[in-house]
Automatic annotation (TrEMBL):
Family assignment from sequence similarity: Belongs to the bystin family.
Organism: Caerostris darwini
Record region (Disordered): 1-49, 87-110
GO molecular function, one term: snoRNA binding
GO cellular component terms listed in the entry, alphabetical order: cytoplasm; nucleolus; preribosome, small subunit precursor
GO biological process, one term: rRNA processing
InterPro entries tied to this protein: Bystin
Protein name: Bystin
Lineage: superkingdom: Eukaryota
Pfam families named among the record's database cross-references: Bystin
PANTHER family for the chain: BYSTIN (PTHR12821)
Amino acid sequence: MDKSNKRDQKKKRHNPLYQQITEDKFAKSSTRVKVRNRSKEDENEAVDSKLTEKIISEARKQLEDVQEEVGLDSMCKQLQTSHLFEGLPDTNEDEELENPAASNEEADEKEELEITEEIKEAFNKFDPEDAEEKTKLAEALKENLTGKLTEIYTLYSDVDDSSLHKMDDIVPIYKDMARLMSIYRSGRYISTLEPFRAIPKFHNWEKILFMTEPENWTAAAMYEAVRIFSAIMKEDMAQRFYNIVLLPRLRDEIAQCKQLNHHLYRALKRAIFQPCAFYRGIIIPLCESQCTLREATIFGSVLAKCTIPMEDSAAALVWISRMPFNQANCIILRVLIEKKYALPYKVGDYLVTYFLRFLDDKRPLPLIWHQCLLTFAQIYKNYLTAEQQQQLLKLLTVQPHKLVSPEVRKELLSATLRPPGIVV
């Protein structure tokens, strides 16, 4: 065999298998290089100014020919001579296109000439340089706006809501609902009634609510109503609902049955969903109306079981401590004190002044008052200053109790007193 044939066989030999597999996986870059020879004519692609003028003139001639054929020119002249264009300045479109800067200058000059001294004075009134005049102008504008708003509000408030909401169509619906609420026992039927859920959306929602006759609702219906309205109503509306519907029903139930129905008790607990409305619509009116000890005990049990924010309870403590003495109020105070809130020092001062009011009272106080004082001393004894401690010890000599007063004295003497500079 010749040597030349052996060399040719060696050259034609294929690559190893692993190299072929790797080469098949990845694409190879092409070695071709594209070269584009751009001529000088392609580089100078910009059109000369003379050629553009010729193109524009030819286009204008074509437009004029089209206008003559269609008749647009005569129509434009008729419109210009009509009454619609009376008082408008005559302008030449061609001149404006040829020299736009000059046309803008002429327009500015005309506008400057039209401004008179009266117009300048009017502008200066609405844009004064003095700061005091600006504030006076702003106040005057605000007064005018508020006056207009009040006029609009009175106009719409004077209109009877019956005309707005078509009372003739609404009355039969809510009369039928009153019948349903008087026989309701269980189920989620009420929560699915859209007319009942839509009551808070009306401007005269109280009038529509009393169409359903709340005094005839069953206890289960009352719970469903409280559950819905406590979630839908705003705070002031919920307070009003608690005060005029829920509270009278609860007090009537306690007066008749000496206890609360299970559904009404759940409704009372559900009303705490809006704590501010609960205090202002139920607890505070109850304390102001000289409630009975039974009522205070039942309402206090709900306060003790449920979680209420500290801010609302602190405000209620301050409000009740300013009221005249009542045994029912002492029960509510004791329940709120036993919740062991981290109250501000000012609330503790209000409670101390409440107890110190009885320094000059010579009548014997009931056991409920002494128990309330004992719970305060046990929980908030570290809130006291040295002066308040001495006054409370003096109070124990004026209003003694053979069993409770020694315990109160022991708590007061074991307290770590508050520094006199701390007020908050």
